[in-house]
Design brief:
Oligomer: single chain
Radius of gyration: 12 Å
Distance between the termini: 16 Å
Order of helices and strands: EHHHHHEH
Shape: globular
Number of strands: 2
Structural class: mainly alpha
Strand order of the largest sheet: 1-2
Length: 71
């Protein structure tokens, strides 16, 4: 799963990833890792993101094409 943090944060609230990291009181690197798909947020942080961005989990998550997982 890819987390569309950057797109949703900008669209819903006009937040940059830097601003989102400040609001969530997390290291900038953590938010950037989620946005780049290197790591995934915990369920607790995913829920917190949804509250802050006023969005659903479905809006944040994007399924990767199956073809990418096979290779």
């Amino acid at each position: 799963m890819k987390v569309k943090i950057k797109e949703v944060a900008k669209e819903k609230k006009g937040y940059s990833l830097y601003k989102l990291a400040q609001i969530m009181n997390l290291p900038q690197q953590t938010i950037y890792s989620w946005a780049k798909g290197r790591t995934q947020p915990s369920y607790l942080n995913l829920d917190k993101l949804c509250d802050i961005l006023d969005c659903s989990i479905g809006e944040l998550l994007e399924a990767e094409p199956v073809q990418n997982k096979l290779f």
